[in-house]
């Protein structure tokens, strides 16, 4: 490895001894024997990833909708086959043919139309008594940071973690893609039938519309992030009565919507 300075600029040539890099490979998700999606992801947690993806897409609503989920080939982890119960197949024919919008956007539609379409499959949250003290939010961030082993070695991964109402960590996942990290964390609890315990989602990235959608499909009302949300994400959060919050430096919380769930004590 070569390291030199030039006019105050540091040049590092990894050469034949590169630092550890984050993995990135395609994962094919087949539903009812047909290719449904190919996502670029970091290898690991493939079954949970596929399960979380299917939940966020509206293909399944509960673990009972799954007839079977497994690798297409026992010696290969780059393809997962998902099969649904007969009853669920009858309930979601449009999803199986990809004729409805969830995360796949298309030209010529605006944000309001996207939200209206999503409201057909995601119901707004009812008012609840969930309240989160600000120190608990800081503790959640610290818990996630302590578990980002991949990020410490590669500096190139995102992370997502799920917590219960008391701030207890339930699931955590890392991936080169922020959406994948969420799907993996959600899928872990979904397959264990423990997803209803999750009340808080924390992501290491910015919050886009799709991240709010995934939290809403998982019925998680609070989304915390280490970076800012998009305008459409906040609009969707308000529409669904969710809380969207960012934290910077463990000292500054910005609440974009759903402030009734956060207090200072």
The number of distinct β-strands equals 14
Global structural class: alpha/beta
Radius of gyration: 20 Å
Question: What form results from the Cα inertia axes?
Answer: globular
Describe this structure in words.
By secondary structure, the protein is an alpha/beta fold. The protein is 30% helix and 30% strand. It contains nine helices and 14 strands. Strands 9-8-10-11-12-13 form a six-stranded mixed beta sheet, sandwiched between helices. Strands 4-3-6-5 form a four-stranded mixed beta sheet. Strand 8 and strand 9 form a beta hairpin. Helix 1 packs across helix 7 and helix 8 packs parallel to helix 9. Residues 104-108 have low confidence and may be disordered.
Tell me briefly what this model is.
The chain is of the alpha/beta class and 265 residues long.
Output the keywords:
9 helices, Ubiquitin-like (UB roll), 30% helix, Cytidine Deaminase, domain 2, 6-stranded mixed beta sheet, 30% strand, 265 residues, 14 strands, 4-stranded mixed beta sheet, alpha/beta
List the helices and strands and how they pair.
Elements: E1 2-6, E2 9-13, E3 25-31, E4 34-41, H1 46-56, E5 66-73, E6 76-84, H2 86-91, H3 93-96, H4 111-118, E7 132-133, H5 134-145, H6 149-154, E8 158-163, E9 169-175, H7 178-191, E10 200-203, H8 209-217, E11 222-225, H9 231-239, E12 243-248, E13 252-257, E14 262-263
Parallel strand pairs: 3-6, 7-14, 10-11, 11-12
Antiparallel strand pairs: 1-2, 3-4, 5-6, 8-9, 8-10, 12-13
């Amino acid at each position: 490895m070569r390291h030199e300075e030039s006019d105050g600029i540091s040049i590092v040539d990894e050469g034949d001894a590169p630092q550890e890099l984050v993995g990135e490979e395609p994962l094919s998700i087949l539903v009812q024997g047909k290719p449904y999606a190919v996502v670029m992801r970091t290898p690991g947690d493939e079954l949970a990833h596929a399960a979380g993806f299917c939940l966020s897409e509206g293909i399944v609503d509960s673990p009972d909708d799954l007839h079977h989920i497994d690798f297409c080939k026992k010696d290969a982890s780059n393809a997962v086959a998902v099969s649904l119960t007969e009853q669920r197949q009858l309930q979601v024919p449009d999803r199986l043919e990809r004729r409805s919008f969830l995360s796949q956007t298309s030209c010529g539609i605006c944000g309001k139309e996207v939200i209206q379409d999503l409201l057909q499959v995601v119901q707004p949250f009812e008012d609840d008594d969930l309240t989160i003290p600000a120190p608990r939010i800081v503790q959640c961030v610290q818990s996630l940071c302590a578990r980002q082993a991949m990020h410490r070695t590669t500096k190139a991964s995102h992370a997502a973690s799920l917590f219960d109402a008391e701030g207890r960590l339930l699931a955590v996942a890392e991936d080169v893609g922020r959406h994948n990290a969420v799907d993996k964390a959600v899928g872990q609890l979904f397959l264990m039938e423990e997803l209803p315990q999750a009340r808080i989602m924390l992501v290491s990235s910015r919050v886009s519309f799709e991240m709010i959608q995934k939290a809403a499909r998982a019925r998680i009302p609070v989304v915390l992030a280490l970076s800012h949300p998009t305008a459409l994400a906040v609009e969707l959060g308000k529409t669904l009565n969710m809380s969207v919050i960012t934290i910077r430096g463990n000292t500054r919380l910005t609440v974009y919507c759903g402030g009734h769930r956060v207090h200072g004590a």
